[in-house]
Specification:
31% helix; 9 helices
């Protein structure tokens, strides 16, 4: 998911600010730095806690987990800039965004998924205090997006794309403030489905083809032929990894991000192979195969 070509397709299909940009421009001009994969904590006790690493995207807050809660990481999080034109004669202005992308297999866990996504947005806003603004500099707050790719949505949600945003409701009068002062968070739910329906197109088709564990290699050529994705050897390997992970966790409904975190813990020596396999509801041999198929940079 952290591949910039993939992110650019998601951004063009789901984020208003990029709807008029080309995919190539999004890749080359607007995605800043290297997206953080599974390394930025969601829960924190102190947003000003010192960073563990200096190798982070400018403006990102790569902090420890909360002292009282289990570590929870964003799947992918990155900073981005996008052009905003007031009119055709004015010079290009720049707006900055923070974007989070999550892959989700369990569509109805023990909590409402949209509430979790809204919490992620809230955390990305509150975590800007310190790195991006201090004291009363609220005008510097950047808009955030949390985009969820749901691979196994419930009946009725297949092949749907839904965005939840803050919008004004005029109760008395017609006055309205500037959009950029309240439009600060959006949740997007990309609910995949099977081909053959009217809605199976655009970003829904792209993500279904990309993440399908049943399509053949020849069918994956759709990514290049219809969407212009250059399937390099590295990207093909990453797509295969996602397919292998999907096959391994599909029956149990375990999140791919959870499996990757277990792999990381085993590789760092913080968790035994046997314990990780138990947590993943796999045999030791099955978990070993997942580890073999998971490149070091993916965790």
């Amino acid at each position: 998911m952290a591949n910039k070509q993939i992110l650019a397709q998601i951004m063009k299909g789901c984020v208003n600010e990029y709807s008029d940009c080309t995919v190539d421009d999004i890749v080359e001009k607007y995605i800043e730095g290297t997206p953080e994969v599974g390394s930025v904590g969601v829960h924190v006790d102190d947003t000003n806690r010192p960073k563990k690493s200096t190798d982070v995207i400018k403006g990102s807050n790569n902090e420890d987990s909360t002292l009282t809660e289990e570590t929870l990481f964003y799947d992918v999080r990155f900073d981005a800039i996008a052009p905003k034109f007031a009119d055709s004669t004015e010079q290009e202005e720049v707006i900055r965004l923070i974007i989070n992308v999550e892959a989700q297999t369990k569509f109805k866990p023990e909590y409402p998924l949209t509430k979790r996504a809204i919490y992620y947005c809230s955390r990305m806003i509150s975590a800007q205090h310190g790195p991006i603004f201090t004291k009363s500099e609220y005008g510097k707050i950047r808009k955030v997006y949390s985009i969820w790719i749901c691979t196994q949505p419930s009946d009725g949600f297949e092949n749907t794309l839904t965005r939840y945003s803050i919008k004004p409701e005029q109760l008395i009068g017609e006055v309205q403030g500037e959009t950029e002062n309240y439009d600060l968070m959006s949740v997007v739910m990309i609910c995949l489905g099977k081909p053959g329906t009217e809605n199976h197109k655009g970003i829904l088709k792209f993500m279904e083809v990309l993440l399908s564990s049943t399509r053949s290699g020849s069918e994956k050529k759709i990514l290049k032929e219809e969407f212009g994705i250059a399937m390099s050897e590295e990207l093909e390997r990453e797509v295969l990894e996602v397919c292998n992970l999907s096959q391994g966790v599909r029956q149990e409904g375990i999140e791919i991000g959870e499996i990757r975190m277990l792999v990381q813990l085993v590789r760092e020596g913080d968790l035994s192979l046997e314990r990780a396999a138990t947590k993943a509801k796999m045999t030791v041999e099955q978990f070993k195969k997942v580890m073999e198929d998971t490149p070091l940079q993916a965790v």
